[in-house]
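Reference record
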Amino acid sequence: MSSEQNIIVLVHWNGVLTNVDNEVKYSSFPNAVLFLNADVSYSTLCENVLSQISRDGLNEIKTIHGKFPFDTRDGVCASMPWPIHDEPSWIYFVQIASNVYDRLEVFIDATNRDVVIPLHEGPSRRRRNLMPSTLNQGPSMVHMDPSHEAVEDEDDPDYNNLSFSEEDSASNDSDDSHDSSWALPHNQEDPFVEPAYRVEDPIHVGRIYASFNELKKAVSIQTLKEYQAFENVSKRPTYWRAKCVHPEQCSWHIQAAQVKDTDSWKVKQYQPRHNCIPTYTRAKIDKLLTSKFIASEISSTIRIKPDYSIKLIMNDIHQKYNIRVGYKKAWYARILALEQRFGNWETSYNDLPNVLQAMAYTNPGSIIDIQSDNTNTQGTYEFKFAFWSIKAAIDGFNHCLPVVSIDGTHLYGKYKGHLLVAVAMNANREIYPLAFGVVDSENGASWKWFLQLLVTHIIPPDRNVCIISDRHAAIDYAFRNVEQLGTPQIQRRYCLRHIRSNFMTQFRSKQLKKLCWRAGSTPIVSEFHHYMQQIRGTNERAFKYLNDIPQEKWALCFDGGCRYGILTTNLSESFNNALKGCRTLPISALVRATFDKLVQLFAQRRTAGMMWQQAGYHFPDNIRKELMERWQQRPHTVVLPHNHYTGIYSVSVENATPVTVNLSRRVCDCGCWRMNGMPCVHAHSVCHFLNCSVDYLIPEVYKLSSYINAHSSDIMPFPNMNEWPQNEFILLPPKYSSRTSRAGRRQETRFPNEMDMRPRRRGQHD
């Protein structure tokens, strides 16, 4: 379609979208008609739609769907709802739909995020309180048990002494996938809405606040900015009066009363000026700058950034009030803010069985499990382990690469714990979350339990699968004690980056570090032995250290293709890093966040797969680009046929030593083909020489059909948790907490190693 042409877009909203018998229908007639250029951008579309829906008091677009045409197997033209959420999905929709329909139709789901309710008196307004989510029981002041004290901890996300070196991040790890969208639970309904006024605005007689807490916060903010302090004179259910802490020399005071039949409070009297001499002491300021006050200050940030670090909180409060707060107070404030947004930690553990059962109820075939310990009280148990894997992901794994990366990482909330994850890789070489576990401690028992569930319920018994992990003693224990992990169907491989890290701990040499990586990552056996001999010539003990590790466990050239070229556990580690925001949440909120993100991921990839299929592609985008790059290198090769019938050819690249390609066995002397199953540049050259397509040599697991099938199953929403039956028992949090009661920094539990060290940059005078 020419960019000079116009398109007619019929816009529907305030109705119900259905798809019956492959035909999109909407419950109302079009509300508006747009005349747009054919090359109009997605952002311009949204601006035009917003201008139309604003007539009905709507100001936020939640989703846009278009009526998308497709042909059924019978050749009948049908339609389906097409999600439009960015520039590519909008452009593709216009290209396809405009060739079939004279008028395009889009269906808008919109809302008003600024609903206000007038109060009975005064010009002020407040926003409507939204119903909290099923995980949130509303704001509450929580009793902080002494065993959950805050300390500066190297396991905490605020401990910034650890960072990967550039060599680690830029190494030959082809599997360093990262999806930052996993960091936050975006599509959870936000139960808190900003007030229609700013608490920081000046206080005056007649001003109305939505609650007593907001009134007191406004007074506290004003007082803190002036380095003053106040104290209560009288506080009754409907009346409050406060005065300066120096009443004998200062006339500052405020008086407020509750507005009848509302939760609002109105300022009745206010003397804003302090005529006393400020006698600033930290104790007086600290009395106002409480953890509860700081929690209210950071609540808006916590809602969108749950991993808001303690050090940033301390810095932001200092920037705003020029008052420094301690680490412990900031830690308590973050705990309170998280509880206000995502629910109480203790209640969250008790809600966990219901949350997992509800998820499995609407997604039959999902695997869930909770392990607990008995207590001295009947009907009360103490949390130990939790496991969940959604049916759609279990089914989709059959169409992913037969490789699973496992890893564990710390939880950063009120209670100590570890998140265990199992991550696969789909046909487009993207992260494919498979299973999750939360355990009280990362030890042999917890890993044995997690891997037992993984190999029994998630990994098909008739499929050969490679599990990549580090050499953690707990994982070693699990592999020795889970019977299925010892069968030929399961092959274990070590993360090469951890091998190199442990190697560097023993032998501190940059040269040995490079040789270790080269030996482990080369697909050619002769090169492996060459690098090992170089290591031997440098340090005999270093050679023996590596030689004592089974070669197939860490060296790519002896792998036999089990690990599909995936050298490290970067898949699971990157995924854990992406979940950092979720790892600060109470446990039930963590489960919901992983569920919501998996729903998002499946929906986005389902759309991408359909777009590629409609465009006529046979492979996902990343694979298609890789094939194109290798195909473009073929003009620099020379092919010599040896036997057409057995498929043997020799190929040389730019006068280099020729390599042998065997099409029948699908191997090449370069080792790259066997490494991950993808035809190497030499195989591409032979196919070009034979004037045939390379497509038939590519494994099914890399094809677009596998990508689509991996994300084809639906993930059904949670039921109404308010109607879900309550537990007949009480589940308590784990007894052991990472927040010890003694003051100061506790002994380090994580010692930095060479993976955490960043080379120091030389200054000009070094």
About this structure: The first strand starts at residue 6 and ends at 12. Residues 314 and 326 are 7 Å apart (CA to CA). Residues 114-197, 737-753, 756-766 have pLDDT under 50 and may be disordered.
